[in-house]
Amino acid sequence: MEKEKRYLKVYDRVREDIISGRYPVDTKLPSKRVMADSMGVSVITVEHAYELLSEEGYIVPRQKSGYFVTFDDTDIYSLPGKKAKAPAPKSGHPSVPHTPSDEPQFSYSIYARTVRKVLSDYGEYLMEKSPKNGMFELRNAIAWYLLRSRRLEVNPDQIIIGAGAEYLYGLIVQTFGRDVVYGVESPSYQKIAKVYSAGGADLKMLKLGSDGIESSLLWDSSIKILHITPYRSFPSGVTASASKKREYLKWSRKNDGYIIEDDFESEFTPSRKPEETIFSLDGEGRVIYVNTFTRTIGSFVRCAYMVLPEALTGKFTEMTGFYECPVPTLDQLVIASLIDSGDFERHINRVRRYNRNKLFMV
């Protein structure tokens, strides 16, 4: 545990130095030995930290030359009289193919034991109707889980529970209306576009480049709501680089837009640390975070959640507050118990270890 804290400390320090501009784009980082000496850690600790930074697109290794900064936080969109700058090259991401049949599955015995415990502990309370935004027990468990695992500090009141991500997409259209343009990655998971279209949304498909939506298409469009899957877009497998994530945020600020961050599957990253979310980088309340338990627990669990910026909670309540929560109380309390007991995170860590081992065997 102490060793893990050391390399994360190096990662955080170098990452902040890159973001602040101490190490501009194309700058060579100090060698692993020099960095190790300056921070009082081992070369292996620095190597692990540099690998994480490379995975997330902050730096790139060059054979026999060292590590160079690829993170570019300058304005890369078109302005009058300026030529658009191409995005920095992506370092690559240690993703493994989506092969759930090979991965460790959530334990049936643990799930069954948890259901029995919830039935015993809660009794007739299970027959109570869920609040419209979901049971407090589940929303509170999710809030603590996001703080522990993703560094996301949110209030349970910001969380809305729904029967699958598609249900939540529908609430988004109900809230923002049909008079604005919605942007979706192309290609993308086909149900995303279908749900928005079925809700009457004006939809624009935005072509993906090597590290996210092509900049010229993003900045030249009239969209106000941008739906992205930054971890690994399906079916292309494209992962947004650190630079691209911040470009999305710049777009939202300059265009008074909002981002729907669909974080499907990111818990199972083979990386040594959780994926950096755009929600965690947002300082102006312009990102809505969406995730589901369908992948992390199993397809039999029809439950997803959405984390709203605090400033949007009132608007969502006003526009969609008449909808009843479609997830049964029993299901919600079972998931909450799995999170609170640690069984949920132990399963995630088990799959991540499996994915790391599989990656190194390729």
Structural class: alpha/beta
CATH class of the largest domain: Alpha Beta
Radius of gyration: 21 Å
Mean pLDDT: 87
Shape: globular
> What is the first-to-last residue Cα distance?
27 Å
CATH topology of the largest domain: Aspartate Aminotransferase, domain 2
Number of extended strands: 9
> How many domains comprise the coordinates?
2
- Architecture per CATH nomenclature, i.e. the level-2 architecture of the largest domain: 3-Layer(aba) Sandwich
Low-confidence stretches: 78-99
Relevant CATH superfamily of the largest domain? Type I PLP-dependent aspartate aminotransferase-like (Major domain)
The biggest beta sheet reads: 7 strands, mixed
Q: Care to describe what's here?
A:
By secondary structure, this protein is an alpha/beta fold. It folds into 2 domains: 2-69, Winged helix-like DNA-binding domain superfamily/Winged helix DNA-binding domain (Arc Repressor Mutant, subunit A), CATH 1.10.10; 108-361, Type I PLP-dependent aspartate aminotransferase-like (Major domain) (Aspartate Aminotransferase, domain 2), CATH 3.40.640. It contains 14 helices and 9 strands. A 7-stranded mixed sheet has the order 3-9-8-7-6-4-5, with helices on both faces. It has a two-stranded antiparallel ribbon with strand order 1-2. The longest helix has 19 residues, at 2-20. The protein is globular. The two termini are 27 Å apart.
